[in-house]
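Worked problem 6 (solution included).
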Amino acid sequence: MNGVKKFAWGVVCVAVALGAAHGAADYPIRNADKTKVRLTHGFWFDRFETNRLVTLKTCFAKCNETPRIANFTNAANRASGVFGGIPFDDSDVFKVMEGAAYIVAANPGDAATRDYVDWFVGEAAKAQEPDGYLYTARTLGYEHGSNRWFRTMMGPVRWSNVPFSHELYNAGHMYEAAVAWFEATGRTNFLDVAVRSADLVDRTFGPARTQLKTPPGHEEIELALVKLYRTTGERRYLDLAKTLIDFRGAGTAAPEEWMSQDPAHGEVAEINSPGAYFQDHVPFTRQRKAIGHAVRAAYLYCGAADVAALTGNAGYLAAIDSIWENVVSAKLHLNGGIGAEPRGEAFGPDYYLPNTNTYLETCAAIGNVLWNDRMFRLSGESKYVDVLERALYNCCMAGISLSGDEFFYPNPLASKGGYRRSKWFECSCCPVNDVRFVPQVPSFAYATDGKAVYWNLFMAGSVEIGGVRLSVETDYPWKGEAKLSVAAAPGPFTLKVRIPGWARGRPVPSDLYVQTEPSRASEVRLALNGAAVAVAPGPDGYVAIAGVKAGDEVALDLPMPVKRIRAHEKVAADRGRLAVERGPILYCAEGADNAGGLLDARLPADATFAEEEFAIGDKKFPALRASNGLRLVPYCLWGNREPGNEMQTWFL
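Solution. The predicted structure is:
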């Protein structure tokens, strides 16, 4: 850890500890309120509206077509023996309801969505057993049948197979949905269900002799308990989140076939050590590398960051800091995806970053964004937003079709053909995660520490934050110009403008990927009311403009030349290859535009590029035409024209 980082984290620890002493601890930086950000046009407005008008309705419909909703209705009626689907399908419904709550919060006049969620909450309340237990599979007497994966998901009685049962995972997503519903409507009906469940979990798990001491196999409840604590003020929920994290290290065994068995990967003993799949191989405070199932891991790191922010736990901070360094230095794909290994949906060894036979689940990319957002709010360093932005624009958005009703589960960086989005999946965690994630994205654009306002992401629209009202005009990420206008402010304030790593010659905050001809911060233009501002980012990656006031305009110009990207020499899959980026966007070649054989497509190192446009339906998007004739399109848009065609991002 370098001197700057030691100082930054030291400040965080002291600030959090002092806050705890006065009962006011939490993240030193807070994001904009989702309901205070208004998008007007452009990339995110289109995605936001598609999520509201199409993706939400698609997920509602699929949850009704499949037994997901019926499981709650049948459980409410105690109709034993009729459970359908997978025991963790309850969580899919909760995630859709969370997304619906965010949409209602942004659109209070959406009575149809509000009424539907209210109806569902009533069914969930009736399905809940008298002591607070809510797991429709057990209430309905689920029989796993012949499916070998489902056999592991329930023991003979409650909590008897916690590492596999998803009882606590389902509960966590319920708590998140309940908090979102309360914040959107002020109604406590869903919160009442969540509190009854959390009280049962608190009675069941803990340090007392009669309590269970098994960590959740699929993490999620930890971060959800923190949300419940913030909403209710009930300290027991925060303490329980910490207790569940501290239970880790027992070495729970995973089925052998879930983990990597290829000796060529190296580090096989570590990958397959007892508990590795569940991040249960050693106590959390001793974990230093990302390992095991990537979605579980990302949710754990989010929960640990939340607990650390509220308690000042230095052991948690040291763990997530080291794990983050391991990810960005050796386990992050160029599209921002994590979890390379298909077997176990897991992190592989350092520098194991394949392109075709890789996983990179959409849920893992979402988890990566949520984790990096928390790391930023702990430290105030823009490098975390750099990783967030990479995952957001590339892997996360590739996971959803432009039409909003088809989805990728894994997100490979190359395809020999045949891979396409699906309308739904038997395990459909990614579509329902999308519908709750997209409404949260605008809140990442702005943040405040009470003194300064951070301008992190560039979206056309307006925001109210910290008493300041701002509006932004931009066509980012396709163009690098953005103009911020201050509509109102209680007095002069400091605006911290993020200068993205890709605009400073650092596509990621490590040497894992480098630009062959690095950009320089000196090429960026920044002005306040037409007067140039020196672009000399501080150690935190921001240019701080002091004394900004109502009526001011800040103009940012981020040059977007096409950049060639080289991977670290230890990344065998990318050795001798280069990728192409422009601004924050990764580009790829698709069979829809090029002849076959794209897995071995060549793009000379001295190739030049001309800007073009291409159409998806009635919408136009940027494309690049290389001097050797190869046509490139944004990776986040691949598979929207001719599903199942070839695709490549790394060129010889």
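Discussion: The CA atoms of residues 474 and 640 lie 25 Å apart.
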